[in-house]
Design brief:
Blueprint (H helix, E strand, L loop, with lengths): L4 E4 L7 E2 L2 E2 L3 E5 L10 E2 L7 H6 L6 H8 L10 E4 L7 E2 L2 E2 L3 E5 L10 E2 L5
Parallel strand pairs: 1-9, 4-6
Antiparallel strand pairs: 2-3, 4-5, 7-8, 9-10
Bound molecules: iron/sulfur cluster.
The site of iron/sulfur cluster has 15 residues, from strand 6.
Protein name: DUF1540 domain-containing protein
Amino acid sequence: MTNGTLTCSAQSCVHNMTGLCSANVIHVHGAGAHSSEYTNCGTFAEKGLKNTVTHMLNMNIPGEVRQLFNSTEVQMTPKIKCDAIKCRYNDNRDCHANFVQIQGPGAVTSSNTECQTFIE
Ligand code: SF4
């Protein structure tokens, strides 16, 4: 799985902290995808008390702590499981890209998000 950097513009997600992802693991969907628009982040959950509680177990606490003490580098980045097997960064459903950008400004569901880094 990736040890690269992930940034995410889905600010409405419960895991989004100033454009970074505080989840331990995310699951990108897109089996059969030939382009970014057919991928999405299945871990997206809209901010709110219910989702904060139900997604607590997927929090990257050590990453959050490291990030708190380092504002110049990305320290908090999730592991990525990914179904988009046609992507060149996909190796056995693990993502090996050094940098991943998830898009989803104004997203209210997973389907409003996509992996911009996808390349067939
Ligand atoms: S870069 Fe490719 S393998 Fe990595 S999350 Fe995006 S679609 Fe999946």
